[in-house]
Amino acid sequence: MANKIVPLISSGVAGPLGVLHLPRLWCKVLLDARGLLPEGHDACGKGYDQMVLDGLGLNRDATLQFLRSSFPTYVQFEEWVLAQKGGKLDRGAVDQLNAAILGYNHSDGVRTSILAHAGRKDDGSVKDAVRLNALEDWHDFHAGIR
Predict the structure, then answer these.
(1) What is the mean pLDDT of residues 9-25?
(2) Do residues 136 and 114 make contact, with C-beta atoms less than 8 angstroms apart?
(3) What count of other Cβ atoms lies within 10 Å of the Cβ of residue 52?
(4) In Å, what is the CA distance from 132 to each residue of 99, 126, 140?
(5) Mean pLDDT score of the chain
(6) End-to-end CA distance of the chain
(7) Which of 61, 100, 103, 136 has the highest local Cβ count within 10 Å?
């Protein structure tokens, strides 16, 4: 994992627009654009990444093109998102998206695999994907700097 950066921004983090996972999506795409995203990390996958794009009504190709070609700061990215939405986000849609992100649980098999990878006993107390994904990232980060 030399010269690769594990994205440590959790899916449970929101920027000023209040959209969970949006900062992580931004981070992963920028890391990938510079060849710094570790193998196994999707720059823009079908899970939370696609949920955010769909929840905000953003065109996937246009969003990725903007991020990769403009390499914006996070604030610039949020400004671009707002511009795509006519200057205003639908708060109800954002609330629904955030609830879906926080309420998503991985399958039992994925949960078991992530916890085993992270070296944590599966006692049934950690089921949500936000915390499981964070545990996996923290483990991979630690392994990369040992």
Answers:
(1) 98
(2) yes
(3) 26
(4) 17, 7, 12
(5) 96
(6) 11
(7) 136
Residue 29 has a CB neighbour count (10 Å cut-off) of: 22
Burial class of residue 33, CB neighbours in 10 A (0-12, 13-18, 19+): middle
pLDDT surpasses 80 at 1: no
Which of 118, 110, 114, 112 minimizes the C-alpha distance to 141? 118
Q: Assign 14 to helix, strand or coil.
A: strand
Which amino acid would we find at residue 66? F
The domain spans of the chain are 16-87, 105-146
Helix (H, G, I), strand (E, B) or coil at 41: coil
Over the stretch 18-41, which tens digit does the pLDDT of each residue have?
999 999 999 999 999 999 999 989
Dist. CA 42–CA 27, nearest whole Å: 11
Please tell me what DSSP assigns to residue 20. Answer: B
Contacts of 92 (CB under 8 A, 6+ apart): none
Q: Is the pLDDT of residue 2 over 60?
A: no
**113 vs 117: CA distance, rounded Å:** 6
Q: Which two tokens stand for residue 139?
A: 């483990």
How many other C-beta atoms are found inside a 10 Å radius of the C-beta of residue 18? 13
